């Protein structure tokens, strides 16, 4: 493996998608898929802005200083520019304070953009006889952002109802493909020897003990 001398963040829109390790000649050696790191959204947007604000207050930075951090503004533009069916629900697992903080932050941005929003625990989402996802009051959920893995949802009791539920999921189910590290093995299988890829394989016998040295 070539030694990496820098790490670059690749972004699509506003959300981090991947980390690419680069060699001294600046060529990408490998790409590590990280398409679902929503837990870092509030850190990237809010913490960075607060740091800038505090540095200006202390006189460390000039009063007209700015930074390359418009994540919150761009998220607000996306929520405001799209015609989402409302109420727009934001869901996280009940006992995860970190996930709830992230979901609350996104919900606040959507509310500021003019959307009618709701917070809900994933555990409180149900399914009515018509196959619609509903909240605890029985109201249908027309639009949903969930901080909950698609891979788990596919295997949950209500997984088979996803396609016909009528709910708009923000993010779409196909993101489960990009977020799976198995894609690295498929890329190597189809493009073995490519200079921007490292060997990656799916172990057909995961129960087998690792070889000495691993």
TrEMBL record:
InterPro entries: GSPS_pre-ATP-grasp-like_dom (IPR005494), PreATP-grasp_dom_sf (IPR016185). It comes from the Eukaryota. Residues 1-20 form the signal peptide. Residues 49-207 form the Glutathionylspermidine synthase pre-ATP-grasp-like domain. Keywords: ATP-binding, Ligase, Magnesium, Metal-binding, Nucleotide-binding, Signal. One of its GO terms (molecular function) is ATP binding. This is GSP_synth domain-containing protein. It comes from Steinernema glaseri.
């Amino acid at each position: 493996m070539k030694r990496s001398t820098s790490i670059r963040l690749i972004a699509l829109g506003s959300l981090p998608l991947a980390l690419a390790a680069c060699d001294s000649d600046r060529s990408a050696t490998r790409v590590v898929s990280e398409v679902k790191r929503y837990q870092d959204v509030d850190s990237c947007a809010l913490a960075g802005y607060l740091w800038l604000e505090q540095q200006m207050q202390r006189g460390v930075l000039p009063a007209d200083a700015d930074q390359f951090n418009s994540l919150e503004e761009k998220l607000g533009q996306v929520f405001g520019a799209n015609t989402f069916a409302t109420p727009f629900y934001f869901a996280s697992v009940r006992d995860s304070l970190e996930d709830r903080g992230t979901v609350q932050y996104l919900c606040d941005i959507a509310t500021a953009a003019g959307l009618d929003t709701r917070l809900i625990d994933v555990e409180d989402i149900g399914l009515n006889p018509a196959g619609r996802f509903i909240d605890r009051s029985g109201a249908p959920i027309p639009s949903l952002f969930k901080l909950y893995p698609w891979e788990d949802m596919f295997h949950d009791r209500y997984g088979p109802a996803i396609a016909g539920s009528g709910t708009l999921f923000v993010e779409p189910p196909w993101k489960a493909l990009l977020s799976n590290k198995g894609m690295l093995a498929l890329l190597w299988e189809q493009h073995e020897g490519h200079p921007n890829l490292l060997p990656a394989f799916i172990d057909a016998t995961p129960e087998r003990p690792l070889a000495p040295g691993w």
